[in-house]
Fold these 3 entries.
Entry 1:
Amino acid sequence: MEDVFKQESVSELKGRVQRAKQVIVTAHRSPDGDAIGSSLALQHLLSCLNVSSQVVMPDGYPDFLTWLPGQDGVRFHDADPEGCDTALLGADVVFCLDYNAPSRAGGLGSAVATAASQADTFVVVIDHHQQPEDFADLLLSDPSTGSTAELIYRLVLAWGMADDIHADMASCLYCGLITDTGSFRFPSVTPRTHAMAAHLLGTGMDHSKVHSLIYDACRLDQIRLTSYALGQKLQVFPEYNSAIVSLSLEELERFNAQKGDTEGLVNRALSIEGIRFAVFVKEDVDRVKMSLRSTGTFSVRDVAATHFNGGGHHNAAGGACPGESLDSVVARLIGLLPTYASQLQNEG
């Protein structure tokens, strides 16, 4: 696959942002470690060019990510929709990180789509999800890459700014790197991924501290919720090498669940011996959300896109079912398992 960062337009982008009066960096709704880590890393990079920028998120992210350098200046659309829309629509350059369609940006989506239609706003997508929509002026997409943080790192190299990576920028990049590669476990990890990690560690960034801040900051209620979910709500279907964990809104409230408390549940289900397909299903106020994971050749992206209004990667995807109940989504999911029996029962 051709390296998208070797395009002449990438070099031209550097000059464009240096001339810009207002640059906005956005990411997808319910931002994860890669989304916010990549966004803040890009902001640090732009600061090295003496370019002022603003990070605007659709909504909040988990508390275990609030240590990231620069996150104090992040604006949230759900808290100030009018102000955020005005800022975005008045920008010279808008970056869309870790998402490939305006609809993935939640409440920001409408403003992103409008900005993309404006002649005086240059919209850039930097993303690693499959099948991006055609809405940006510049698309820097590589689905073979394990994280958007890696793509931001490649942008740094393309702009000849490798020596400008400081410890704070490196911490943000490393956060995105480890969260979206499962701490280097996923098949998308390559020698280039580890070379990037080595470079980041060379800046003096404390990788052990970063890992601990992300993975070792569990609240007691979160531990109890995890115990309940795996002990009481885990359903295993050995005949289909599949497992499902589901939690209702009442159950989440019972354990005082906060953003991020259920992250990792789907991976715990997938870690069961013999399981190739795992799903975590969570009831929200107006929709039912899903996280899907798989191993080998079984594509959860296809399952999410075909049945659950979702998308993502081959082995990691998400979906959402507005207006549907938790029970109906789980029942529909279970009913689909026989459809995929041959794929799930074959090793891949």
Entry 2:
Amino acid sequence: MTFLDQIQNAIDFIEAHLHDNLSLDEIAKQANFSRWHFQMVFNSAVGETVKDYIRKRRLSESLEDLKTDKRIIDIALRAGFESQEAYTRAFKNFFGITPGDYRKSGSKTHSIFSKQKITMGYLDHLYKGFNMQPVFITCEEFIVIGLGSPMISILSPEKNNHIIVPRLWRQFQRRKAEIKEPLNQNSYGICMPLAQNEKKSPDECYYMACVKVSDVGEIPSGMVSKVIPAGEYAVFTHKGVLEKVDFTINYIYGSWLPKSGKKLRMAADLEVYDHRFDPESDNSEFDIYIPVE
């Protein structure tokens, strides 16, 4: 089964159970991905988060129900909304008209969010003009010391990464000098999965701002150490301002990965910030390590 088949399987499962109470774990299982990687892969390949895709498809399907004499409250519940008011707000935000006004208008044509068909042509169109080839590196096991915190990624409705990560880096930069004898001057951002019993939210993971060390030694107060296991990584270089890194990430997971023949490995994602990194410059560069096998 190809990478594209895996994503299409997830989409087909969603469509077959569009009006059921779908869980992210169920959908990820259809694609043979861990929940950890599935949200990133789906968002990059489809251009929508899983939650937004389901919501938009349900709203689009509800247009047909509005052409009947079904009560709007019943249509709202079938579309997965808890109340007619919530459905009406979402419907108006998406279509620019309320369900009632749509029904009164004689069901004129509106733009419908259709089921996605993921093909190489679709991905080429989505990332037209963007091409980035990685270097493959096998990293030996290494140790890091730094500040870490659970966080929830941007792909979750409960996201807090935009608050947690910048705050963590500010704190770390003030205290970096407390770490004795780092192996180099680089800083590392490490995002790793959490065990199920360590999570307060299903979408929670763990992020560290840190440096490499030769051994654990003395850990400054409030800091932690982690051992990063050996493994293969595809290394990409993000060029430009930090605010545009999402496009690089989406290209990696949405365009490069499906064509690469590689599979994602259940391990930490790494960011390496060296002398090339300058958050104030358009010429800034840093490396993104994606675990593969």
Entry 3:
Amino acid sequence: MNAKRVVIWGAGRIGRGFLADLFQEAGYHIVFVDVSQELIAQLRQAGRYTVVRAEGTAKRDDLTVQGYEALATTQVEKVARALVETDLVALAVFPRDFATVATQMVAGLQQRRTLRPQSPLDIILCTNLAHAALEFRASLCTAAPPDLRDYLEQQVGIVESLVIRMVAEPPVEELARDPLLVWTNGYAEFPVDRHGFKGEIPPIPGLRLVDNMRAEETRKLYTYNTFHAALAYWGTLRGHELIVDCLADPRVRVEALGALDEASRALQAEYHFPPDEMARWNDGVVRQTDNATLRDRVSRQGADPLRKLRRDDRLVGPILLARKHSIRTPHLIRATAAAFLYRNPCDAGAVAIQERLAQHGIDATLREICQLSETEEDVVAAMVNAYTELRRSLLPTSVDDKQS
């Protein structure tokens, strides 16, 4: 075992298209573990695949990932052995799968305690979920027998991270050439919680050590996700299908940039991000979004507005944070109103919102979905006024008046 080893648990787009890219560049031997036996068989048979880093139409860099191992979770003994031998684990699965993955890891962690009791194992969680470390550690402790729990606490580090790299659907002709190809924007920075590690911090290019992970999570949500949501909901009202077309529309661009600026000022007031750093960060948000090669769709960025309109999410969250610091948010208010006007018959969340609007009107629907209290009447009133004005000015007059 001369080469450094990493187990990438989850061989989907983030596992293959971001983590494998970073770790191969850092000289790690990669072991993929995935629940999909079909995907594992593809990886084994191909022996290699391509990661496209398309930073724009004028800049594209292709990386071949090869020399890896690929294991299905049903290969219990081999997976356990991989956990014993590895230097690091990167977990790229949905939070809903934490309990299952924790159970699948127990056998390997038991063997590691026996064979390498003084060798810490750090598990980097590559899922954008607040407090993910607490949730995954709880899942591990629930799955583990009592005699393993002290070892988990002392030797297993759970490290939160932020995945900012964007992954898009590859062109059909590219997939025909390489069915495992992953098409990305090439973003390489990988923020991780420095305080989560039990062992030595790995020397991975792009790794950025973070002291306040909550601040970084909130910044990512209230900039990238806020900007994308504003583009998507305004873009839908203007008839656009691609995010780059939204950015090219002067009205949509002004509204989305205004929402980004308001959210950024709230973040600076709360977390004290330096103005020059915040400006560079926002430039990156816009630059990475304005990437025609990704062909990012409005329907993807606008998906599930029922979730995105919650009080702690990307629209209402920055409004309330700005309110705390007496910062006005007319652009964020209008973007939220646009989200309530979002129509997509293929999106269950969008359909549910329109049904509630038809039955209960905007005032009651907004209070319920955004979870706003009686002490936040000023926010409710501003949103209702913006919704009414947008609906009157941008939507056809034939829309059901019961939503007024």
